[in-house]
Sequence to fold (588 residues):
Amino acid sequence: MLFRRIYQFLIVYCLGVTGLLAIKYATGLSNYVIPDLTLLFDTARRMLTGYFFDVLNTLSVTVLGQMVSIFMAFFVGIIGRKSSWLGSFIKVMAYNIQAYPIVALAPIIFILMGDGFLSRLLIASMICYFPLLLSVLGIMASPIKDIEHFYIATGRMRWQLEVKIRAFENLNKLTTVIAGSATLAMAGTIVAEFIAADQGVGYSIRIALYQSDLARILVALFSIGIIISVYQGILETVGEQIKTKWFAPKGGELL
Amino acid sequence: MNQKSRAGIAIRAGLMILCIMLFSAETPAVAGDTLNYRLKWLFNTSVAGDIIADTGGFFKKAGLDVSVNEGGAGKNAIKELELGYANFGVASADQVIRALEKGADVVVLAQLFQVNPMQWIYRSDQPEIRELSDLKGRHIGVTFGGNDETIMNTLLAKAGFTSKDVRISSVRFDFTPFLKKEVDVWPVYRNSQGVILEERLAAEGEQVKFFNPADYGVAFVANSVVTSGTMLKKHPETVKAFMTALLSAWEFAVDPANEPQVLAQIKKKDKGTKNNIRQKQLKATRPLIKPDKGTKIGIIDVGAWQQTERIMIQEKQIVAPVDVTSRLVGPKK
Fold:
């Protein structure tokens, strides 16, 4: 899973760079518009280590932001799963708030909270949170009738059991959504850094943009791509392991 | 070869041709066709002459059909020249020098700002900055990766300071750290943001001063009009007509006698700024474009360009000299 993610990224990245180079040579553009391979490798030699640590810095905020949003999404999703007035209210609120572009709120967050760690964390969590919430709400609000009926009929249904059944039956979907939200959390952190932070890879990309240096941007994108692929690969592997554990009865064979 | 693979090849070939056509499409550059002029920033008083050239009919009188387009954070006139999206543009000296280092075919037709509007603002109740040594111990804002960082580094090196002698903070889009007095000395464009901040603080009963690097021997060139070497070679008459019209418009725009007309034209393009601010911005723009009556608008200060290139080498913004003077084709000082 981990290596497949990295291969996939490398194929996409190489295709992208090849496309750019094709345009460059087909239309005779200078290195100022699209860098050639020599410049790209030279920039990578100078900048890659720095960008690697910048991405790690960004990733630390991403992981934390994603954890916060997963916790929030499950908390709200579990409360909002009921067809009671509270559940309906939470669902309506979630659907309406997520329609508002978080990036538009980012400048206000930076003005109020400064350009430190908290602003980055908040924006990353917010960007990652809403799509997660919508998926969790959808999963938690859909009864698994065949199974739940038995527990309801026997009077043994509790809310914890209900949540467990729905999570278990939708484990594949949940794992995919959580792994996918890693990209959103990373994008959120980078957007936050790009707008106003003073560290992280988004901030480095902003500097490269000031200087119209596409080679640096491509190297930064490479660092981001590799690290996010590894992170997503790890999340998927962990998801697989959890699935295997859940599906295997204690001391027994896989179903 | 089966039908499926033939269709695949046809699609790929089509996409490639489309791609090449898209990026190689040159914008027309001969009389009678629309010329595209890409500014560096949004429409505001800072580009008064460019606005007047368009709305005041200067281009039309010269027989040119010019589309004056706003710039912005993601816009780069030199790249657009190369991609064929623009015929003329406004770029800062550091952009020109960086482009030359990477092989771009760009030439400088005129230097619009004789004095760089990039300056630093500070409150009058703080000790005045008379000498570079007065920067010691100050909390200074810079945009990392921006011109102001390069300029400030040069000033600090000139003063013999190290990073321990001052406190440097990263600057972002809003002025909050300066307004909250977290940063003492804040970079601004003297004729646009400088005026706005001055007004805001005056409303709070605070007075400000400006610290101009040029007063301490650092003349880092700002905005200039550029075109491609090919355009100059193939259409010298169009370039000449364009520059004559543009510089006449700038002469008109900075003449105090034309102030009401100029402000009315700017207002059409820059609706978000208050009238009194626009007026003050125009007043602040005049000495940057035409510092004295004898200065010919657009004249290229070769010494300042050479200094800008030297600074960029010292600051490791470029690796090797680019001989920028060979690309300065407009009238020189």
User: Anything to note?
Assistant: Residues 118-216 of chain B form a domain with the D-Maltodextrin-Binding Protein; domain 2 fold (CATH 3.40.190.10). Residues 88 and 227 of chain B are 5 Å apart (CA to CA). Chain B has a mean pLDDT of 91. The beta strands of chain B are 34-38, 65-69, 88-92, 106-111, 118-123, 139-142, 167-170, 186-189, 208-211, 223-228.
